[in-house]
Amino acid sequence: MATEDVKLIGSWASVYVMRARIALHLKSISYEFLQETYGSKSELLLKSNPVHKKMPVLIHADKPVCESNIIVHYIDEAWNSSGPSILPSHPYDRAIARFWAAYIDDQWFISVRSILTAQGDEEKKAAIAQVEERTKLLEKAFNDCSQGKPFFNGDHIGYLDIALGSFLGWWRVVELDANHKFLDETKTPSLVKWAERFCDDPAVKPIMPEITKLAEFARKLFPKPQA
Amino acid sequence: MAERSNSEEVKLLGMWASPFSRRIEIALTLKGVSYEFLEQDITNKSSLLLQLNPVNKMIPVLVHNGKPISESLVILEYIDETWRDNPILPQDPYERTMARFWSKFVDEQIYVTAMKVVGKTGKERDAVVEATRDLLMFLEKELVGKDFLGGKSLGFVDIVATLVAFWLMRTEEIVGVKVVPVEKFPEIHRWVKNLLGNDVIKKCIPPEDEHLKYIRARMEKLNIKSA
């Protein structure tokens, strides 16, 4: 294929941008990474995503694609003859992967985020309990989907690995903030091992942000009220 | 390879007045797939529903040869990938992406915002109506020059957006405010007429009188004044 004109509007700290980047790396697609400045939105972002005005936006031959999971689908389908398949091949497995990816965004992440925005100890405790419960479901989902293999997608990382794995940096930041381990050898043994393998994957390692940098950024995004 | 063998078992756990359930019926009917419809009482959830969708405990749930799939958009993609006659998603990767984008927009933006109109009054309601109209403008623009959101024929986004045509717009007289007036949204009104010209749509949407009666009864139960 001739050099495609591929741009990605995003930021180093965004979970959703990371999903798009992992997918591009898996397919060995070269792209221009246009980093947004924190606190302002570029003209290009506003023009390419007039509906949501959010990153990531993939621009392929001048056509914008928005929404991280939709971008990952697009990358898999538009470059279906190169690199590994990101979505599983069987329709039922695809449905299961899509179901859990939607669960992660619509439910699991909402409860994780509410730990960071919790006002007071009671709210925080309740948020932590909810994340614990929801993470247990993800541990079971991993065991069901992986069937003894290293990733949700089987032998190689795929759609659902990317959907959850992109959160790992932020998840660690939340654990530090809450002083509570969610990924734990006794409670979630499968996910602990999976997380290590995921972060070590060559498509992931170069772009997983450093925890200290993320924690510092988190303090900017979620300032603590002055005592 | 036979796609519709006599031993194929398709069941749908749904609810007659739910837009999320009806969209599945539309897709199955468009593809000529026979299915057994199992009407669910969502106020008193059956053990079957809880067993088949233990995570979200919601309808619709499609059960294909004993295997359950939940989340309406996930189910729609599964149906399209499993029964290949009369495709509802376009073939081109970019167009598929746009179909997924707009469908998500209908469910996560239009639906969520429009729901807030119910039960509000005065300035608060005006603000939500304005917000809903701003979102609907995107659909209005998408319809210019097209018979359907899918183009020349009914597609994925049309099926999902029946929520707008036959739920949002139907409840206008009950809620007492024209959220989608024809002067502001001529394309949407034209599109609704086109939908009603389709036999499958006509067959699969809830009968209007019964539907309006049901909505009034529900609002009464929730102590919301209807017009």
Automatic annotation (TrEMBL), chain A:
Record field: catalytic activity: RX + glutathione = an S-substituted glutathione + a halide anion + H(+)
Domain GST N-terminal positions: 4-83
GO cellular component term of the entry, any: cytosol
GO MF annotation terms: glutathione transferase activity
Major location category of this protein: cytoplasm
Location(s), subcellular: Cytoplasm, Cytosol
EC number: 2.5.1.18
Keyword Chloroplast listed: no
The protein, known as: glutathione transferase
Organism: Arabidopsis suecica (Swedish thale-cress)
Automatic annotation (TrEMBL), chain B:
Gene Ontology CC terms, in alphabetical order: cytosol
Cytoplasm recorded as keyword: yes
Catalysed reaction equations from the record: RX + glutathione = an S-substituted glutathione + a halide anion + H(+)
Alphabetized UniProt keyword annotations: Cytoplasm, Detoxification, Transferase
Superkingdom of this protein's organism: Eukaryota
Predominant localisation class: cytoplasm
Enzyme class, UniProt record, top EC level: transferase
EC id: 2.5.1.18
Family matches, as CDD domains: GST_C_Tau, GST_N_Tau
Ranges for domain GST C-terminal: 92-215
Annotated localization: Cytoplasm, Cytosol
Residue ranges of domain GST N-terminal in the record: 8-87
GO MF term (any one): glutathione transferase activity
Any Gene Ontology biological process: toxin catabolic process
Family: Belongs to the GST superfamily. Tau family.
Protein name (record): glutathione transferase
Protein species of origin: Arabidopsis thaliana x Arabidopsis arenosa
